[in-house]
């Protein structure tokens, strides 16, 4: 049996940008579009050219790029009531976007036509037909039937009539939208099947556009594909209004790896899903969803001792797919629940796994620190140092004596914020005392620490801070609660995470900074008292 | 047609606690169990009495509580190989937990029996049968068939044989587990149906236990119910290992509000789902998942201008259910995409909606601040003050002149961390200068601010900080990036959110603190120069 191609239509840049806390710059949009084209997404909906300047600029810029087979779509609504399509500013903006595809959205649900648009049912049908006809002269037209499933449930004949108006006017795709996200898979399957039969005389293909309000968007999209839809609309990571659009990552992975008889994207695209997911999170400045299916940081993370034990024997025992198929990786977590198996897995890297007494000590210390708010799951560098400390193989490269930060606003005409740090360290027998300014107190502390050590350890020059995260551990007590700071650092070879916990955010940050620098110095095998003879040090 | 009752089995306290970053104290577990019983959950799996002291203590404590019809379950594995059930420490621990129900987990998948347990297929069947028989003398036994669906796909006869061993030995429920979360709804439906037919001679009912590794856990659970399962296992908010267990919130809401022919929980329980969800997040110290179906903060949040316009006409146009049915609420968000509709909705509270020029000014300022990293979605108090400022109705109750914080560690035998803040304010014509210590710099600043103002504005005494959150807005630049601080404050009547953004975490916190206090003073209608005559002020 031949595989049936299912086309992927991404609307991260348009419907996704409706998500709470999501805001893309023009450059963000261009970067995401280029990535989407690289993985072979078939359609990219770039924006709503009537709504803002940024989207207009996007369409101007994206025309200059070679996106291969990927088609860019401009999105807009049917013409306004009592106006010719050609005279409508929305229609004109869609044409002016000069995209190979225009996606036209119209009303399917009789209630929406009469109560929201305030037009007769007939005029709504005319608005759809005339808009599609006008746009089809310029580009391929995908017709998005808003509220299709709710509309069909309310008035099936009318819902089909609106589709026929678009199809007869030259639209080539009918995209059926579960706009409110409230439908069940069995409803999606039955209505999609009925719709395909009703449009048998029209030369159109069917798309599906689901939202996740009932946590069924992936199942609904797959149900529509099984019923005959050949295009799936959604967003990367499922970002979007309310509970989001369907997550295309899950749709693609399920179609490619689980369902039988379909092809999707092409080439090596699957292996780039994890990278694509994280790129979109970072660009949108959203936190990764650790538990995200297939690509989440926790998707192949193993914590329970029993599971870790089994994973070491055979990965498929607790993994539904090989994480590498989607570019993800297996992680063994450190936690009080994990028992000896996890500690052994990490300790094996230090060749310590046969020392039972040492393993017990490490486990006890992990439990003690976890009770204080530490979590080593994203702080493997701190965990590595912890193991070294307990094993007695840790050799400190410097001894913090004290630090102090001062921050405030200067009392001048225009308020100026400042932050300064002073630190005192000992390297070998030499005392160092230095200070630095920064944008904020943690940045000042970081600068002071590295400035002070750089002469002794020049390898610190290629180290940089990548991310800084703060979490209130017990949020019940407001600003007096414990603060957990995670710092991610990197050099040209790798990135590493460290952690600090304290009631004082400065102290928590300081601990994470010190660990980060120590980790770097350990991995570079720096001698504990520095590269510079002590007598040459200038304090 | 009579409705068929579907029982809800919660394993938040056991399988949920395997989730990354999840760690419950004994008290947490007791509090969650009591809440679960209050909403009428049928079974609560409390823990694994062999694994740790905390779970043993949980079963001792929970026995003293009246949980109504809710049954507590202790969870454990089949007896070890080459050992009598009665002699196995795991079996003994289960009996010692003295729970009305014991949940026994055993291996279904031939591969797991031979490769992980390292027993023959026959011995695995004996282990299941003998364990169930031993436990059934003490409690009702639910048999959890681990990897049931993967096991069935590999060797269907053997998978059914393991179930029959448990059923013949006295287990009353067969819970079919998609342990690796990799199955599709159509597979779950077909295998569940086949299993029910195969067990027709046994007096057992069927449960379903899904994981979300393919983002299909809700659809899979519903598919099993349609195929005849009458118990659904899962966790609140879907917390759990890897991608989590099925979210019982979505299962319950879909069964009660979407599917036909089933009853679930009872009474007014649905209305408590949002509260329950948030209680579990807070207790587990996890961040809320804003886009969570039904109960998320964004689940009924409307951002797009077009949508907000329609929502104002009729809620069902963009909402699949009435949010109140699950105890949630509608929110109108403020954002650059929202256009005039959203601003009008919020401004209407200030009776400003008819002033077009003012609306334009507010919109422009929101866009400007959003570009700097502000997000007013969780900072409605700051947004209210912003509107007042632009409308000219803001009357500052105090003028910050300067602040300074100092934090560091004292240079004594034992390291002591300290934080101090000094601030200078003007109230009316009076200058105030004061200082305070705190656990950290933000706490010190907060204390100093309120200490300084309390004499003038005694109403501040009933205000408290509830939560403090920090977000790096541009995480690419490490500690030099912009910092967004959100503070949630409250008094006996309400809670409110404020925001501050700066490269300096102290400055960002200061702005959010100042807004929080100003909001409180505005809502209490405090006179701008305080309640105390200026001449009585002591600086």
Principal-axis shape of chain A: elongated
Strand content of chain A: 15-25%
Please name the two chains that share the biggest interface, counting residues whose Cβ lies under 8 Å from a Cβ on the partner chain.
A-B, 124 and 125 residues
Counted up, domains of chain A total: 3
Alpha-carbon Rg of chain A, integer: 29 Å
Q: By CATH's scheme, which homologous superfamily of the largest domain in chain A applies?
A: Aldolase class I
Helicity level of chain A: 25-40%
Query: How many strand segments of chain A?
Result: 17
The oligomeric state is: homodimer
- Arrangement of strands in the largest sheet of chain A: 1-2-3-4-5-6-7-8
Helical stretch tally of chain A: 17
The major beta sheet of chain A can be summarized as:
8 strands, parallel, barrel
Decide which structural class fits the backbone of chain A: alpha/beta
Mean pLDDT of chain A: 88
CATH fold field value of the largest domain in chain A: TIM Barrel
Question: Kindly, what is the distance between the CA atoms of the first and last residues of chain A, rounded to a whole number of angstroms?
Answer: 77 Å
- The stretches of 5 or more residues of chain A where confidence is low (pLDDT under 50) are 531-539
Q: Which CATH architecture of the largest domain in chain A?
A: Alpha-Beta Barrel
CATH top level of the largest domain in chain A is Alpha Beta
Enzyme class (chains A, B): transferase
Pfam family, one (chains A, B): LeuA_dimer
Domain Pyruvate carboxyltransferase (chains A, B): 6-274
Pathway (chains A, B): Amino-acid biosynthesis; L-isoleucine biosynthesis; 2-oxobutanoate from pyruvate: step 1/3
